[in-house]
Design goal:
The longest helix has 16 residues. Strand 11 and strand 12 form a beta hairpin. The chain has a 6-stranded mixed beta sheet with strand order 5-6-7-3-8-9, sandwiched between helices. It has a 4-stranded antiparallel beta sheet with strand order 11-12-10-13, with helices on one face. The chain has about 325 residues and is an alpha/beta fold. The N terminus is likely disordered. Helices cover about 35% and strands about 25% of the residues. The protein has 2 domains: about 240 residues, Rossmann fold (3-Layer(aba) Sandwich), CATH 3.40.50.300; about 70 residues, Alpha-Beta Plaits (2-Layer Sandwich).
Length: about 325
């Protein structure tokens, strides 16, 4: 990303109510610098935390949850230092990437034990644990021994312990790992709901289409530095040197192709790719979505398919992360 785009990506990206922040944060492990002069602000709702392996995602979540202290810079959770101020722990829920269970406990007993650490008595902790297990779809299996659980069940149990104490901030590191398709759909819905309740939910994941199903707010990290933050669609529009490809399925693609080039100035190129399909590139996706069907209608054609492989999170990730802009 060039410096101009960095400035433009930051405009309007800062949330109205900042719940998590990092300012000038660096963190090294021996010769490896995991985060380098990192700045970020996150507010309510679900935010996807994206980046390749080793980019600093898990380190950032550990800093926000108070497990690590930055070498330089300032980390704040609800305005407090999560490493030094114990009072903020009750407001933070963490689902770590790695499993660390007491294998002989039942899922319910495990979640209840961790919930008691937040100051609830035994009865309160058990009630909250049962409610959390039900919320993640584990009510029927809450008495199962953790050592006998499937990977997906273990993952659900980890998520349950992160929300049982009703935290304001929920940090989820690869929360869908090992979940089957039905469980993934359920957990995506749950994560979206947690954000809709006004919590600050940060989800680290490698599965881009799942992040896109939860939220359009993303943070992209590469080499320990912030590459971009904001709404997927808004960020994609900042890539003004990367035109959108659009695939159109229509009865007479050659006829439509000629008109597109003649009449739409935002269309850069058109090619017929099949007997009933064409591909075009445009610099203005919104206008193209309006102009192309209208032009086809004028020609007596019906658009049967209209897709853009460049208007999603995967394309944004590819441009900003994999291609190293």
């Amino acid at each position: 990303m060039n410096s101009q785009m960095t400035e433009r990506a930051a405009e309007g990206a800062a949330p109205a109510a900042v719940m998590l922040s990092a300012r000038g944060v660096s963190k090294s492990f021996g010769p490896i610098r995991a985060l380098n002069e990192f700045d970020l602000e996150i507010g309510p709702g679900v935010t996807g935390l994206l980046g390749p392996n080793g980019s600093g995602k898990s380190t950032l979540l550990k800093l926000f949850s108070g497990q690590l202290r930055p070498d330089t810079g300032v980390v704040r959770a609800l305005g407090r230092d999560p490493f030094r101020e114990v009072s903020v722990f009750g407001a933070i829920g963490l689902c770590p990437e790695q499993d660390k269970f007491y294998e002989d406990l039942s899922g319910l007993d495990f979640v209840a034990a961790l919930t008691r650490l937040h100051g609830f008595d035994g009865a309160q902790a058990r009630d909250r644990a049962a409610a959390a297990m039900a919320r993640v779809g584990m009510q029927a299996h809450q008495d199962k021994r953790i050592g006998a659980m499937s990977r997906g069940m273990r993952q659900r149990t980890k998520i349950a312990q992160s929300i049982a104490h009703d935290p304001t901030i929920v940090l989820l590191d690869e929360p869908l790992t090992g979940a089957d398709p039905v469980a993934r759909a359920d957990l995506i819905a749950l994560i979206s709901q947690l954000g809709a309740e006004g919590r600050c939910v940060v989800v680290s994941s490698h599965v881009l289409h799942e992040v896109e199903a939860m939220t359009h707010q993303v943070v992209l990290i590469r080499f320990g530095r912030l590459r971009a933050q904001g709404d997927i669609v808004r960020l994609r529009t900042l890539l003004d040197d990367r035109p959108y490809r659009i695939h159109v399925t229509v009865g007479a693609p050659r006829r439509l192709a000629s008109c597109l080039i003649e009449r739409l100035e935002h269309v850069r190129a058109v090619s017929v790719i099949a007997a009933d399909a064409l591909e075009l590139t445009t610099t203005e996706l919104d206008r193209a979505c309006f102009d192309i069907p209208q032009l086809a209608e004028e020609l007596g054609e019906t658009v049967r398919g209209f897709t853009s492989p460049d208007a999603d999170l995967e394309s944004l990730y590819r441009y900003l992360i994999e291609e190293g802009r």
